[in-house]
Amino acid sequence: MEDLFGALPETPAGKPARGVQPAPPRAEDVALAGRLSPHVHLGTSTWSYPGWQGLVWAGRHSESTLSRTGLPAYAAHPLLRAVGIDRGFYRPLAASEFQRQAEQVPRGFRFTVKAPSLVTDALLRDEDGRGQQPNPLFLDPATALQTFIEPAYEGLGATLGALVFQLSPLPGARLARMHEQFDQLHALLRTCPKPPVGVLAVEVRDAAWLTADFVALLRDTGARYCLGLHPKLPPLAGQLPLLRALWPGPLVVRWNLNRLHGAYGYEEAEKKYGEFAEMLDPDPETRDELARIIRGTAGAGQDCFVTISNKAEGSAPLSVRALAQAVADG
């Protein structure tokens, strides 16, 4: 029987290994990984892409196979020290599901996990993403604890990197009453117990959040600002004042979408990038500035949790490699 997490522990001579196998490590990647601080955790937003054959996987596998059994092979890559768990955004995950992921990765590996939309979206949406009606559980502390914080703390243990409340775009009526949104978020974060390792972080999709009031509530609750590299927000340089105001502390980054595609360009990027095997839209300016921030943060002894989407430059593993090189060369 195939091993629960992929490859069998032993393979008879002359027979191909079964399960999802890691691509043979490049000597350059091994050497580059050795130059990175242990505080630097770089990875991708998830791990289930067949097009990463040769970059991450040794063979061709379906998306469902990679989703179920590909994580150990992903975590064997010398530069991939982190990964995102985005599917919890669509439905809450149990502690046992988090534990299963934690048991498949090596020591020092970290997860970045998005909170369920059940508590981070002000609207209840249909299957096409259209807002239908107000969400009564938006930023509800009890729901956040039960469906996200407690299961993640219990299941992830020492592999917990960043738990991210990614707040979806607010409807106009709420944007007009931002003081109420700040109060709700403050109450939620005050309710959350401090994580045993890693950090709690907040990522936003509306620039209206990026104010002194936001900085004050993050300081008061000990949460971090998640640097969201997305066209709906100012470029990286425009978000640096928040990081400076919250220094010192760990760095949390989610590089979501290349700015050239615009605020609603996910589908356009997906069509253009195909199987995500090539870096088609390199963004060296963002990458070099991000590398500078990572070097400064890790150099001060603070952890860095950085996950990158395929839609940032075309291929997340190649973006990780280029970012790692920029960090090390600096």
Automatic annotation (TrEMBL):
Pfam families: DUF72 (PF01904)
Transmembrane segments: none
InterPro entries: DUF72, UPF0759_sf
Signal peptide: none
Region ranges (Disordered): 1-24
The protein's name: DUF72 domain-containing protein
Organism: Pelomonas margarita
